[in-house]
Design goal:
The complex is a heterodimer of chains A (227) and B (153). With 227 residues, chain A is mostly beta strands. Chain A is 14% helix and 59% strand. Chain A is built from two helices and twelve strands, in the order αβαβββββββββββ. In chain A, the strands form three sheets. Chain A has an eight-stranded antiparallel β-barrel with strand order 1-2-3-4-5-8-9-12. In chain A, strands 6-7 form a two-stranded antiparallel sheet. Chain B has one helix and ten strands; from the N terminus they run αββββββββββ. The model of chain B has no long low-confidence stretch (mean pLDDT 87). The chains are: A mainly beta (227), B mainly beta (153).
């Protein structure tokens, strides 16, 4: 049976009309509406911190740090941060020198608390667990005088083993700069959970954590590229 | 943006401070069996300047605390005991120890912690000496060495 050209034209018209309707709906929904909760994987981003290298340049200690962050629904961001911390400090009054260099790692996640309709701006609250295993040197740059017995001595400790674990609570802002490039900063409160030093005394600087103490305040300024 | 990063780096560096412990002196504690009414003077020999008095005429005491040398393997103490009639005895006490440096921070004065290994002594005014607690550190609440003096000299 031959179908008339007239009928065939109408059949194809109806088919194209049926396809066109969902396509136009998709065009309207290209911008993600992150005000609606979802956990769809959106990609990963890699970033580098700029504060740590600047600390190394202007002070006695600092770190080089990068991170890889996954994006789930523009809301949940599991992250792994890793870096290399370094210190080489001399106290000119006490005449002691402390030197260390070691890697560290932090794992955790961020949550975007901003409920706007697009993903250009994020306000992130996050947690991290950090750990570093390192060795350090402590030495006296001048002879130490025993105040009572008046004898001179030197302190010269090398490759003293130590480790430290801590948690970080952070709050930060993240902004889309241009295309896949984002910038952001964070303020971090660090709390030391456990530490071990294979000598009598305390580490002056812990890679990734900072200067000694049961708690620390820190921050980062990141440039990230979304992949 | 550059000023912001620089300021943040300076702020973080400035926020870290070290409080050196006020209790940073390491002293060895010598306890007596009973209250000693005789006067006790403790001295030692400095290598550079001769003898020095560490404790001068302590009376009616049950203990005394004196510093230990940073790095000497043995501290030699001279314990002079003078009774109420003026009679004196002079004993030598040799305390052997292992010394380990303690560093709170490079911004705080270092000190040494000691582990007592042996005591040797003369017995003119002293009956016996015993190590009670071999670790000499910042804890001064417990006696490290117990001295048993003779009842009369």
């Amino acid at each position: 049976m031959r179908i008339s050209k007239y009928i065939l034209k109408h059949i194809f018209s109806l088919l194209f009309l049926a396809l066109a309707l969902p396509l136009s709906a998709q065009e309207k929904n290209l911008q993600p509406d992150i005000s609606i909760e979802n956990t769809t994987f959106q990609g990963i981003s890699v970033s580098a911190d700029l504060v740590g290298p600047l600390q190394l340049l202007i002070g006695d200690y600092g770190q080089v740090e990068g991170s890889v962050k996954a994006n789930f629904g523009h809301r949940y961001f599991p992250v792994v941060e890793a870096g290399y911390g370094k210190a080489d400090a001399i106290d000119d009054v006490i005449h002691l020198r402390y030197a260390t260099a070691a890697p560290y790692i932090k794992i955790g996640g961020d949550y975007n608390v901003l409920r706007s309709k697009d993903d250009r701006y994020r306000a992130l609250a996050g947690l991290r667990y950090g750990f570093s295993k390192y060795k350090f040197d402590i030495s006296s740059t001048e002879d130490l005088m025993d105040p009572v017995w008046q004898t001179l001595s030197k302190i010269d400790l090398h490759d003293v083993k130590a480790s430290c674990g801590w948690i970080e609570a952070l709050f930060g802002i993240d902004i889309q700069l241009y295309g896949p490039v984002r910038v952001g900063w964070s303020i971090r409160y660090k709390l030391r959970l456990h530490h071990k030093e294979d000598f009598q005394g305390k580490s002056w600087y812990v890679p990734g954590y900072g200067k000694q103490g049961t708690s620390q305040l820190g921050g980062t300024f990141n440039i990230a590229v979304e992949i | 943006m550059q000023i912001g990063i620089y300021s943040l780096a300076l702020f973080i560096s400035a926020c870290s401070t070290i409080d050196c412990t006020l209790n940073s002196r390491v002293l060895s504690v010598y306890a007596f069996e009973d209250t000693l009414s005789d006067a006790i003077t403790v001295s030692t020999t400095r290598y550079s300047e001769g003898d020095t008095v560490l404790l001068n005429k302590l009376v009616n005491a049950t203990s005394f605390s004196i510093p230990m040398s940073y790095t000497n393997g043995t501290d030699i103490l001279y314990i002079e005991r003078t009774n109420t009639t003026g009679h004196r005895t002079l004993d030598t006490l040799q305390v052997a120890k292992i010394n380990v440096p303690y560093i709170e921070s490079i911004e705080c004065n270092p000190t040494y912690i000691h582990t007592l290994t042996n005591v040797a002594y003369t017995q003119y005014g002293i009956d016996s000496v015993r190590i009670e607690n071999p670790t000499v550190s910042f804890d001064k609440t417990h006696a490290h060495i117990k001295i048993y003096f003779k009842t009369h000299i």
